[in-house]
């Protein structure tokens, strides 16, 4: 049965505290930190981008389980910050893990859910027998215009999932999606920063779609929230996933393990996927995981996942690559000036 | 410039070298001939693990335009655990660098040809 054969995550080592950003813009740090439920966010190094993060996440997955790279038939990278407008990040990943040239590849873009769309594609290719293994990656060095509300949470990180039929550590029982044309958040071609509909976009955007996909999956599976050990929702801040969980009937306990946003920020395409990785870092055989992503524009993908005995077997070494907890520990804090330099926000003389 | 770069992509991304099966000596950059075994050498591809230690280093404080944004940075000679040495950037603060420091490879941006040109990726090292 199709499932996750191995996985890996990557988070850059730098952080900026939310009060430091608030200081620069003369905003009330307490209001912002409490309003978002986010204390700090990750910042990429000057030489890191979506491609380097995607490569590190994919390599971490392969360190945990010896897979012949030649057996990887597809790589899809979901991001809204691909380094090139034209030239796929997925090709760079394929080359860097030795999977080229006998593979198909493409980049995906669907705001924060491009990575889970890649997961669904790989599931289909594996189940149809077209490929043996496929890698789905969600990675971003998220963009927020200086001073915009998004700047407080736009973070960097990613996760990679290798899908296949052979002895998965977690089977994916079902996936379904809920999609509409909703202009809650967008970035026009050639623009550096995205724009959004403001603070009232939560209901017609995030909540409508996450609930739509989650309820559809529960109905199709014939399950109730109580049957799951863990739940992961897209986390643009800590408030939205906690509220949608409550509305759906999931508890804060089910959410806790995968709720990485307070110390990480919103890694966009990486968000729900890093939450899933953090959950797999501690999950035991038999655990059920409920995952629902969200991407503006807008849509949600929901997944019903069950961890297998393989996660504790000799063929899989969870400890061989750093856990999300490990990646979040021991950060280097930067001030706003260093942050601006890292993010290339300073205009240099040519 | 672009074509010169892409011919070397496998080596830059992955530290792909060679190994002499006869005597066990490793080569990076790859060699097709073992100077020890000569005709008796059997050369095969070798993917280095990317773990090693700093043999010596220098701190670069002034660099050409392409690398100016990264200064100051640490440039080191890294001895891979399999033996070969190579010059590479160590991603750390200059005061963190030490001779003998254990390092592991990471995938990073090396340089970009301006705002519209090709982005060059490759191997750097971080403290292990
Ligand atoms: Zn030899």
Would you write up a description of this structure?
The complex is a heterodimer of chains A (350) and B (128). Chain A has 350 residues and is α/β, with parallel strands linked by helices. Chain A is built from twelve helices and 14 strands. Chain A folds into two domains: 3-169 and 314-342, Thiolase/Chalcone synthase (Peroxisomal Thiolase, Chain A, domain 1); 171-310, Thiolase/Chalcone synthase (Peroxisomal Thiolase, Chain A, domain 1, 3-Layer(aba) Sandwich). In chain A, strand 12 (288-292) and strand 13 (299-307) form a beta hairpin. In chain A, helix 3 (50-64) runs parallel beside helix 4 (89-96). The longest helix of chain A is centred in the middle third of the chain and has 19 residues, at 203-221. With 128 residues, chain B is mainly β. Chain B has one domain (2-127). Chain B has three helices and eight strands, in the order H-H-E-E-E-E-H-E-E-E-E. The mean pLDDT of chain B is 90. Bound molecules: zinc ion (ZN).
How would the blueprint of this fold be written?
The complex is a heterodimer of chains A (350) and B (128).
Chain A lengths: L2 E8 L3 E4 H7 L4 H8 L3 E4 L6 H15 L7 E7 L10 H8 L7 E5 L5 H14 L5 E9 L14 E9 L5 E10 L5 E2 L8 E2 L6 H19 L8 E4 L5 H10 L3 H5 L4 H4 L6 H10 L7 E5 L6 E9 L16 H5 L3 E2 L2 H7 L8
Parallel strand pairs in A: 2-14, 4-5, 4-6, 11-12
Antiparallel strand pairs in A: 1-7, 1-8, 2-3, 6-7, 8-13, 9-10, 12-13
Chain B lengths: L1 H6 L1 H6 L1 E5 L5 E2 L15 E5 L3 E10 L4 H4 L4 E8 L4 E6 L11 E11 L6 E9 L1
Antiparallel strand pairs in B: 1-2, 1-3, 4-5, 4-7, 5-6, 7-8
Bound molecules: zinc ion.
Helix/strand/pairing class of chain B, anyone? Answer: mainly beta
The name of the CATH architecture of the largest domain in chain A is: 3-Layer(aba) Sandwich
Please mark out the parts of chain B with pLDDT under 50 across 5 or more consecutive residues, or reply none: none
Q: State the helical fraction of chain B.
A: 10-25%
Oligomer: heterodimer
Counting structural domains of chain B, the number is 1
Associated small molecules = zinc ion
| Rg of chain B, Å, rounded | 16 Å
H/E element string of chain A? EEHHEHEHEHEEEEEHEHHHHEEHEH
Strand order of the largest sheet of chain B: 6-5-4-7-8
**CATH hierarchy, class of the largest domain in chain A:** Alpha Beta
- Number of distinct beta strands of chain B: 8
* Content of β-strand of chain A: 15-25%
Shape of chain A: globular
What is the typical, i.e. mean, pLDDT of chain B?
90
